[in-house]
Ligand-binding protein SH3
Amino acid sequence: MEINPKLMTLLLAIAPVSELRGAIPYGILVAKLSVAEVFTLAFLGNLLPVIPLFFGIQSFLSWLGHFRWTRKFSLWFVERTKRKAVIIEYYKAIGLALFVAIPLPLTGVWTGTIAANLFKMKFKYMFLGTVLGVLIAGIIVTILTLSGSELFHILKYQ
């Protein structure tokens, strides 16, 4: 069974490992969708988990803490997130936007939203910072994808 390329682009944008950093190259280079379509799907898909994640992470971590075999992971995860996202603690929404915008592993929406919750950021500032960060990340990844694709074609035909 083959998954629809638009759906796959959306799912990659939602997933915590790939986010839009994987969705945009897939949509443009593999699925051959239009840039506007890919950007829209990746942008919206990357924002879909934000609200449930922001309001549900404390309950989930608390639930993990009830079990001996997951308690260590829960504590490690919280400490690691706080260490990685110190920019969010200091600069609030602007720091969150910068953190989410950096197109590197472990700096996306999932980690940023969790960190914003752990640092007790107000929802409206978290959401504003996240939207701005996803927009910037989307622009960066789209430009890099299109530039890399063009460079590949130039080198291929020389």
Notes: Residues 123-156 form the longest helix (34 residues). The CA atoms of residues 48 and 122 lie 18 Å apart. Residues 5-156 form one domain.
